[in-house]
Fold these 2 entries.
Entry 1:
Amino acid sequence: MSERGWEVAALEQIVGPRARHGFDWHPVRRHFGIASFGVNANVAREAGDVVVDEHDEAGGDGGQEELYVVLRGRAKFTLDGEDVELAAGTFLFVRDPAVKRGAVALEPGTALLAVGGRPGEAFVPSSWEHARFAVELSERGDNEGAVRLMEQALAERPEHAGNLYNLACFESLAGRHEDALAHLQRSIELDAAYRGYARDDDDFAPIRARPEFERLVAT
Amino acid sequence: MSAAYEVLSLDELDRVPVAEGLEWRPIRRRLGIRSFGTNAYTSERVGGWVVEEHVEGSGHEELYVVVSGRARFTLDGEELDAPAGTIVFLPENDVTRKAVAEEEGTTVLAFGGWPDRPFEPSQWEWYFEASEHEPERAIEIMREGIAELGERGWLLYELARHEARAGRRDHAREHLTKAVELEPRAAERAGGDEHLRELLP
């Protein structure tokens, strides 16, 4: 943060990892260090591109209400199976975290702002934000950096099964095999679904032959 | 409001004139958002305000997004050209901020909240809205605010003011007395109000 007490940026100056389905992700919250609500922007390059990954807010960190603002272009949202087309200047407020939501761009350059938080709770950044940056670091060969990011995520949300699992992944890749086994074990203790994920996860290739790993993923 | 989701266009938002061309377009209150504050501000004329000059007394950090037109921000005296797509973040609540429209129909979205505690709506949301209505409806709006936030100094003050406008002097006196107990600055403001001056305890 600058000493002048404020910061300014155009959306295009806020650069983040490209998202899994291809839209440009602009991590506004992380760029500015916003600590009171979550806010990011997604920009599709082409019509037909996914601009919001299908998800709900009931799982994972859970419980967020979300406001989407169409800044440019036009998007087709699908909300629990119902299609809704939104033009620039439209707000979509998803009050119920259980609603399955996703969107595709109907015009090139469609840009959305997504803002979220949990009613009645002080804001804590979503774990996936850290994980997305950690994946980018890992893909560039910086597995130690990825471990540090996930350690930060774990400090914000201790005993979070997803954070423990992701930390174990990057520790495995970074050669910290004992730590990886310990964190994977704890993630499975908290959520048995991670046992199945670990069986097929290439990140655990460095420890796959260890007897401890075999015991952890055994049914 | 209980629907699982809701769609609303900028054009459908209410327009509450505030000052110097600034129109307040309530979003949070309209949609029932409970985890952060958000509103839009529009000026249809060049030179009109799109952010009223203020420091953020609530302690909120604030994010502004210029969604249409072009604004000129003044932040602690420093000017900033902000075309549509510009995002301005103010983590420090004591920065004096203001913005004017450089094009007709400029609209700025504002988002805010506290970094270290759960969000709750600002009292001004109710008294801004009430200010647009005749006294009986304004009283209802202020009672809605008290029902949501509990008895707060400025909510009670504005309730008293509208009750005084409606000629309900006993209620107004009672609520003004309570308002001053909770918010001592209300006494000074009441001293300058033609409806409340004579009801001060």
Entry 2:
Amino acid sequence: MQWNSISDFFAMGGYAFYVWGSFGLTAVVMLGEALVIRRQRAELIRHLRTELLFESASS
Amino acid sequence: MKTRLIHWFKFSSPQNFYVLAGRLQPLFTALAVLLLSVGLWISFFVAPTDAQQGEGYRIIFVHVPASQMSMFIYLIMAAWAGVGLVLNTRLSSMMASALAPTGALFALLSLVTGALWGKPMWGAWWVWDARLTSELILLFLYLGFLALQSSIDDPRRADKACAVLALVGVVNVPIIYFSVKWWNTLHQGASVSMTKSPSMAAPMLWGMLIMVVAFWMYTIAVALARVRNIILERERHTEWVKHAVE
């Protein structure tokens, strides 16, 4: 391992902003996408259920 | 002798594929999480410091996977869209629609992580170089696909129009890939080559390859989850969806 301390690790040899920026953004985008799909599914199912309720009420 | 036949065409029906995708998705999610953990660990704790770029080169572990995914997803998306156009299969077009947002996000990540790498190494966030410009066009192609789709109300007509756009745009993918050979560019050549032995240190190469596979698993998991939403939405007037959401 090439890190002598934790602060050494976070400093990334002076490239902290660029390295952590890249990994951080990638993580935010990937986690965000997964969460958005999950929320869309929950909303869609809720919406379809209400549609069904209206249908059965009107028939 | 009786041979066991798998009826693959069974899964071209949205209803059957909805169930299959629901079963496969957790598997690919688990693989993605596992491989991402291993890949990140190699990226930061196993791969040595680069002789020229110090610790700054570690951006490669997200930049290369994101960039190659943005190109592969485009090819797969165009292939599904093309199959949907020719065979008139609804599920193929739904697969293309499910891949487009993920491809757009990876194209964006490729450009942003590239800028974050370019600034310290080249001294510029952006240059109008062949590799960077053609990747930017790829992002615009994805955005065009998404915009065209949302602008046409009838989903089947939208599928056809988007398929034509996607297929025409395929010409850009080899341009991106070969841009570093065809033109003089600031961007370095291919990181991994089929014909030459790898020029990178083994842990760096392994870290990168594991991250690439991890991004593939992530993409499959996300595309399966999204196609399930699209199927529910588009098939909402069928009996099976009514039973499925009850």
